[in-house]
Description:
Helix content is about 30%, strand content about 25%. By secondary structure, it is α/β, with parallel strands linked by helices. The protein binds 5'-deoxyadenosine and iron/sulfur cluster (SF4).
Amino acid sequence: MSNVLYINKPSLKVARNRKDVSIIYETITNLGEHLFKDGYFFIHTYGCQANVRDEETMTGLLTNSGLERTNNVENATVIILNTCAVRENAELKLYGEIGKLKRLKKQKEKPIIIVSGCVVQQEEALELLINKYRHIDIFMGTNRIHHLLDLIKLVKKTNKRVVDVPSDDTTICEGLPVKRNEDFKAFVNITYGCDKFCTYCIVPYTRGKERSRKKEEILKECKTLVKQGYQEITLLGQNVNAYGLDLNDGSNFASLLEEVAKLSIPRLRFLTSHPWNFTNELIDVMSRYSNIMKYLHLPFQAGNNEVLQRMGRRYTKESYLELVNKIRAKMPSIALSTDIIVGFPGETNTQFEDTLDVVRKVGFSSAFTFIYSPRIGTPAARFKDETSKEEKSERFNLLKEEVEKVTEAYAQKLVGTIQKVLVDGFSKKDPNKLSGYTECNKLVHFNGGIDLVGKIVDVKIDYSKVYSLQGKIVE
Ligand code: 5AD
Ligand code: SF4
């Protein structure tokens, strides 16, 4: 199979120059036809929660098509690698994984191999995949998941490789089938895409225009989850604060959050909040509902104002710290986590000190730390970067040390307290112990039986390790 059928090609330029285009709302009524008599599909998802939620839709579609999920790639009729492009390392790992699949095409029953997600949305990466990995059959864009079964049909019919990766698609699809990865914790999309265009970030190009789902659809999905007995909902968006701004009907994130909280889901969370546009109304709603978890992921990325400005972040160190104070004034016990990038082009050692200062001043409960990774097509990839790799690693290690200090101090404060924990299952590290997350999103290990999985239990915290807590169930 060497012919390539192009339905849509991605273009960074088109993604970058998009204007105020209108959103197309589409409701799918065909839940996926029975394409296969039997067989298995395999999906490996890399990256963020948006990808995990996309995986659940693909799983829904493929299950309806007659296939069953397998963890054994050797058995699969359909193989999907659902990719992440946010940093280079993830992308490099992916190429290794794709390479390994080639031998499966020598089998009598050749699987259909699909690459979806953010990597294929990048022009250069897509070209490399098309030319170098000829065993890939389908390249499917982040906003084309509803076409998955049609694309498979097309490959079967034409025996061609198919590319369906537009950069200007503004469709929001409702009614797609979903098979969730968990029975008691669920992700619910509220916005897709991102219009912030932080200068280091590829996401606005790969996930497209920021667009909000209609409130009725979100509430319908949440109500179904409550009815099904779900214990936790996480509302998802690249920047949830932007929810509703494109709907022009007065909706905003704070009022949406309040309406979902009123549905009485035991635990409600959201991801991710940009510090920009974090309203007083949102702080107020969070503080008034006990089922909205007192935990907030609030990426600050860098502590220096000049670096923040070059990152296009739209806030300063001072205004970030002020926001944190405002949030803590209303919710003193709130746990804050964050994302931090070191080694942004042009960042000096003195500027990096500001990042350490913010870490110390805020006292995060956890933090994801990254070394800056240039992404082709983003403005920052063209910025002058004279800092050596060694120096960046040194800063990264210093940052990790500081983050460990503050997160340990936070965890230490939980020792001796009783925490409500939603039990996930047996721990991956110690299969004799259960594990789950506190309201403040800390991982806890404790003894208990399988009957507790999916339930919220009280756990007394005995001691803390770097990344987790140990405790005992309180009867
Ligand atoms: N290099 C390093 N980290 C990045 N992130 C996003 N883009 C890059 C990049 N080019 C980080 C940010 C973001 C998180 C999801 O990934 O910290 O909040
Ligand atoms: Fe990327 Fe910034 Fe959008 Fe987050 S808000 S997805 S960092 S561009």
